[in-house]
Amino acid sequence: MKEPIISISGIRGIFGESLTPENITKFTSAFAAYSGKGRIVIGRDGRLNGEIIEKIVESVLLFSGCEVINLGTAPTPTISLAVEQMKAGGGIAITASHNPQQWNGMKFINAKGIFLDAAENKAFMKFILKNDPKYVSVDRVKPVEYYPSFADYRIQRVLNISSINVNKIRKREFKVVADCVNSSGSYIIPELLQRLGCKVIKLDSDGSGIFTRKPEPVPENLKRVCREVKKQKADMGIVVDPDADRLVIITDKGEPFGEENTITTAVKHVLAKVNPSRRIAVVNLSTSRSVDDVVDSFGGKTYKAPVGEINVIKKMKKTGAVIGGEGSGGVILPEVHYGRDSLVGIALILSEFASFKGKVSEYKKTLPEYHIRKSSISLTGINPNKIFSSIKRSYRSFPQNFEDGLRIDFQNSWANFRKSNTEPIMRIITEAKTPAEAEELQKKLQREIKTILNK
Questions:
Q1: Does residue 97 have an active-site annotation?
Q2: Is the pLDDT of residue 422 over 70?
Q3: Structural domains of the chain sorted by starting position, each given as residue range(s) with its CATH number in brackets
């Protein structure tokens, strides 16, 4: 039996191949034991095979003596918030995030409503390796509590964010095309937008679980929504991934706002509203320098963490950051909850746009301009340490950071090489002041890697 990919982000695998009833049962029963067999919140991202996995997870938790609260189809941030608010012992989000339809997985959430960190994962792994499930008799099986209405509480939490001006947003009456990839954001995203006074045009927001495009919200997958924004003469497009923790904006011109600009705009909005002594932000090591520039303009402090939501959260807690996130479109606002949250991002960014008064494309021009290029190489049959060691030697005269793979900072650009948490690939990220410079640096590094591998 093939095993799923295990990382700090949980497990992921191909349905029926590396994600099977056997290993779903194994991981679920282990988590039940790890969590003390108490109250567990579950939910799923909406993809077509999610309901089958949900039934297995729910049944195994019940067999294990747990009390199950089932949110049904729900964004991962909603599941995390529910764990915290319902004082549960943990949570399981059934999701493969941005992976294609044939994939699915499970993200494990601790009693504080955040993902397991490295130490917690190590402790959890002991239960997995033990693989000794303890099930209860029928008289000790508890009834499932289904709680789809938690979405309303969740929306209200977002509307209560102290830095946003709901009335100002409503007065703008933004016309928005919402693309929720027919997954977990299909109800809650349009509902939030409507409560913020937006005219919503739904695109791939029927909740069917059918992906009509590749689910990762990157520019090459968003051509249809870009066309729709122009066709509808909308103020913007709003796009999320299947579990709705990442947020991407499309400008009024039908062009990507830039996923890195999602976190940059959110940081700018929040820091302008807080006491100068609290102007602290945390982003990961692969996030654009534009965040650093914005924080510097407020006299604040930026801290960096390895890629991975839990890593950013831990650094946020340690530094007392008021805002944080990742350049892939993930916004984390502790005021609502420690977790990447597209709904929080929507509210913050709409409030920022409402205050700006101009068009989204015009607002984009006010942000520091950087250009990122991303690529990846397969690590199948390749020792990544060979690449890291050679690149490290070649650029030993430049500042290097090893917290998350290898990051090299040049005078006007940077590059980051890191193994993916969820796929057998190495990601290569470059950023520079112009597209040509970022692209040239990317190509240069790819040529060097090819030379290294051919030796």
A1: yes
A2: no
A3: 5-148 (3.40.120.10), 153-364 (3.40.120.10), 371-454 (3.30.310.50)
